Amino acid sequence: MTDVHRTVDAVWKLQSARIVAGIARMVHDVGLAEELAQDALVSALEQWPGSGVPDNPGAWLMTVARRRAVDHIRRSRSFERKQGELARGLEQRDPEPDPGQDPEQDPEQDDVLRLMFVSCHPVLRAEARLALTLKLLGGLTTGEIARAFLVDETRIARRVAAAKRTLAEERVPFDLPSGAELAERLSSVLGVVYLIFNEGYSATSGDDLVRPGLCLEALRLGRLLAGLMPQEAEVHGLVALMEIQASRSAARTGPSGEPVLLHEQNRGRWDQLLIRRGFAAMLRAREIGGTPGPYVLQAAIAVCHAQARTASDTDWARIAALYGALARLLPTPVVQLNRAVALGMAHGPEAGLALADSLAGDPALRDYHLLPSVRGDLLARSGRLEEARLEFERAASLTGNAAERAHLRRRAAEITVPAAPGPTLAQAARDFLERGELDAGTVRSYGQTLRRLRLALGDRTPLPSLTADQVARVFTAAWGEAAPATWNRHRAAVRSFGAWASMEHLAAGLDRRAGTRPRAEGIDPARLEALWSRPDLPLRERALWRLLHESGAAVTAVLSLNVEDLDLDDRRARTGGSWVSWRSGTARLLPDLVAGRTRGPLFLSDRRPGPARTPAPADLCPETGRRRLSYERAEYLFKQATRDLDPAGDGYTLRRLRPGA
């Protein structure tokens, strides 16, 4: 990279938010504003190597981007009759900045604030808000965002594109809210900034515990917001919280990257400059006054930790009281879990354990590794070592972060207690599923149920200790809101497993549910067209989804098709006693999917089955050795691919591909 290119990159990261924000105010379209700003960036890359870097590169980029915006407005059909008047009015209202003028002195100081509120708009899903905020306000490239969150660039590009599309479809105005709406929208903005910080501070996946780049970006956004909204106490509270938490970064990991718990950290390694900045932000929040909000309360907790010279000096009673106030204001399961830790430190492990145990059946904490981790610590301090070891092992199985997983496994290994008699839950589940009389579909179905029990209760849990109450709590957390058919399917699996293990009581707390299956609503045609137009869809998924949509057949019927059943000329195939037919979209894809195969399943899985999971001959392709694609895998892939299209953010089910569903 040349010096000029490095300069362009640095200027873009510093000034892109201001440029995009200024252009968005002119064109009232965030996506278009970014495109015009990118055009200015391309012009800089073309011209600066020859002409040299301007004295004020930010102003140069803004000038070029504004000219592009005015040209676009003049060409816009919607402004044909008033194009000259409108363009002149915009030029008068938004005069081109003097290239010698610092962009910081732009009279429209709230442009960036508007952009922040738009990119964090509640109409967007959380993942889309994160990606769009980092793209527009952080000046990060798609690749940089993807690397930060350990996902591929395509996924980030989809999120950003879907976010822009949603903002346009919902006609989100480029203005600042007021009154009660301002408080609601500000909460969304603060939440996005803190999510970015938390992902950097405690990475949810990957090998590293900390991603400093995301922490720094969140701090930069928080400080920017504090400058734009100096009279908002919650903004300063968030900045104080992040500054103080970031001050511990150097002490949070050991020589091998392993996590170091707060009470074990070398406080001499805490960054005193960041602590002082955090204290200053907290003072500003207190000076503003008013009832403390959630970020001010969390910052007050962080201040308590920072003020303690040693871990033993920590005022845990005050921290527990602050968590009590926070729980009344924000009664989320995660806040209650943190309160359990504080209660355990202030009033003894049993006090914390009572609260932590009450959270065990909460669906929001179903796969949250910190719940068993906290319980393990409290159990160990209570002398209940065997239970503590099981909880640490369960926490290790739930975390996606390699450093945390290794740390939790070490904590479990440090507890040496005699093994309980009898088989473990994992051993019994494996023996149950590996019986010869179960077909492949039943093994998959029962395996889903037992996998959830193992995740929730721990692989090493002694089978004889398993109770009906434990199973009922797992069911409530995992499938309490599920359709009756789903609940009953998992209930049948537990009944069968209990009968096999001579523990019929396991399903005693699970009543059969009655109900009818609701008719699935079809996918909006515009969103369906957006799905078909994606260039990165694998051939198998593209053919399967097209066939389901064009045929209107049941998912199970389509997945059961074999190559030898196809009549490609007549565009139909026999399945059981009926026919499945399709139209031109599927007809173009099937020959490439078949790829010369003459028999076996039409839709194949990605890999060959392992020796312990050999499918029935009818579900195995004799030419490739791969098995038939399962309903569960096909459903998962479709949900993942359509999460960005679904306004609810959950992804669609395959049944919704049927016309008129």
Automatic annotation (TrEMBL):
Residues 518-661 form the Tyr recombinase domain. Residues 97-108 have a biased composition (Acidic residues). The keyword NAD does not apply. Residues 423-502 form the Core-binding (CB) domain. Residues 82-96 have a biased composition (Basic and acidic residues). Keywords: DNA-binding, Sigma factor, Transcription, Transcription regulation. Residues 82-108 are annotated as: Disordered. Gene3D superfamilies: 1.10.1740.10. It comes from the Bacteria. Belongs to the sigma-70 factor family. ECF subfamily. This is RNA polymerase sigma factor. It comes from Planomonospora corallina. The lineage of its organism: Bacteria, Bacillati, Actinomycetota, Actinomycetes, Streptosporangiales.
